Amino acid sequence: MKVILSLLLILFPVALFAALPLGSTPKEVALSGDEGGLVVGGGAWASSSLKGKMSLIFYVDPDKKDVNDEATQELKKYKTNKTKFQSYAIINMAATWKPNAIISAILKGKQEEFPNTIYVQDMEKKLVREWGLEDDNSDVLLLDADLKVLFSQDGKLGAEDIQKLVELIQAYAAP
Fold first, then answer.
1. 122 near 37, Cβ under 8 Å?
2. How far apart are CA 129 and CA 26, in angstroms?
3. Arithmetic mean of pLDDT over the chain
């Protein structure tokens, strides 16, 4: 009994903050109205729109926006086939003390700087609740065209993680 209890105490924090399991399909979610949506145009966004292309998703707390800069800089070195690949920056707006108006203005500038990335606002931590993403962090997901998880990491990516991510993307979406 002590062994089981010890294992549960050790594994519980890992399960609580675990990345999405590889091979799983995240639950369908939609962000619209007060829940959030697209930064440019302000329309609704739904995870069903990811189907048909490999999707790289950075789910980011604005206070942790620089955590995976190393990964984004590395990924910028590679070209992708736009008919097979799309990148998303989904911002966890409820994870910060910063005013939404200021963050929205910054995101509109980012959208201009990175026109091939779709920027989305999650105003109420819906992806934290529905997908189990880690709150107050930088989460990186890679989904295939059928929405299966190919890569999932909470927090800062190490050099090996970045290389694995690049290899997965290039294997499917190289021009």
1. no
2. 12
3. 88
The DSSP H or E segment spanning 122 is strand 117-122
| pLDDT at residue 10 greater than cutoff 80 | no
pTM higher than 0.85: yes
Other CB atoms within 10 A of residue 61 CB: 21
pLDDT of residue 108: 85
What are the structure tokens assigned to 165, written together?
A: 């991510």
Q: Which domain holds residue 108?
A: 2-173
CATH code of the domain covering residue 106: 3.40.30.10
Query: How far is C-alpha 50 from the geometric centre of its chain's CA atoms?
Result: 12
Q: Tens of pLDDT along 97-118?
A: 989 889 988 888 888 888 889 9
120-154 per-position pLDDT tens digit: 999 999 999 999 999 999 999 999 999 999 999 99
**Please, what's the b/e burial string for 7-36 (b: 16 or more CB within 10 A of its CB; e: otherwise)?**
eeeeeeeeeeeebbeeeeebeebbbeeebb
Instruction: Say how far apart CA 65 and CA 126 lie, in whole Å.
Output: 19
**Cβ pair 166, 75 in contact under 8 A:** yes
Closest-CA residue to 89 (of 16, 21, 113):
113
Which tokens go with 60?
Answer: 């980011």
**Domain tally for the chain?**
1
